[in-house]
Amino acid sequence: MSAPYKELIDGETFIRASLNAPHELLCDRLHAWVAAHLPANSSLKLLPRRTALALRPGVEICPDLALVHGGTARLYLAAEVLQPGDHHPDTVLKKQLYADCRVPRLWIVDSRYQNTEVYGSNALCFRLEAILSGGETLTELTLPGLAVAMRDLFAKPSA
């Protein structure tokens, strides 16, 4: 389990609870897959999990996974792995922040329903592009060769 941590959302401090082993396993898998498919010459940089990022004044969040532009540190892709009983900050507050700040890519990984919501942003809107589950596969154009089958992401750890 991880230690509790703080996030600041529009001036309000949220103390986020310790994260359980299943949550951390999903984070481990996502980080390993993204790191393995991030091209060596990419302008994107994978940050350590829950690195604090200031999106705007009064907002400092800690995504479970973050890809930032190397030169500007601007957030390109965030992944939030939900933990039972602690969904509201990730699924409501932070999703709205990502939309407001026009973060290009967002993945919300939900172990309860074993699915991943994929959001995209452009100059006009922030939109839900897909809800992936079962045999469906998560891909990302900026990560050539990345193909994460939902059944592999949510597989029980081998003994």
Short structural summary:
Helices cover 21% and strands 36% of the residues.
How does this model look, in words?
It is a single chain. This protein is α+β, with helices and mostly antiparallel strands and 159 residues long. It has one domain: tt1808, chain A. The protein is 21% helix and 36% strand. The chain contains three helices and twelve strands. Strands 3-6-7-8-9-10 form a six-stranded mixed sheet. The longest helix is centred in the first third of the chain and has 17 residues. The model has no long low-confidence stretch (mean pLDDT 92).
Radius of gyration: 15 Å
Number of domains: 1
Provide the succession of SSEs. EEHEEEEEHEEEEEH
Q: What is the CATH H-level superfamily?
A: tt1808, chain A
Q: What is the CATH class name?
A: Alpha Beta
Number of helices: 3
What is the residue-mean pLDDT, rounded to a whole number? Answer: 92
CATH fold field value: tt1808, chain A
Q: Could you give the order of strands across the largest sheet?
A: 3-6-7-8-9-10
Describe the largest sheet: 6 strands, mixed
Helix proportion: 10-25%
- Uncertain parts: none
Structural class based on helices, strands and sheet pairing? alpha+beta
Bulk shape = globular
For the record, the CATH architecture stands as Alpha-Beta Complex
Percent strand? 35-45%
Cα end-to-end separation: 19 Å
Number of strands: 12
Output the keywords.
159 residues, two-stranded antiparallel sheet, 21% helix, alpha+beta
Any chance you could write out the topology, listing elements then pairs?
Layout: E1 5-9, E2 12-16, H1 21-37, E3 44-46, E4 53-56, E5 59-61, E6 65-69, E7 75-82, H2 88-100, E8 105-110, E9 115-121, E10 126-133, E11 137-138, E12 148-149, H3 150-153
Parallel strand pairs: 7-8
Antiparallel strand pairs: 1-2, 3-6, 4-5, 6-7, 8-9, 9-10, 11-12
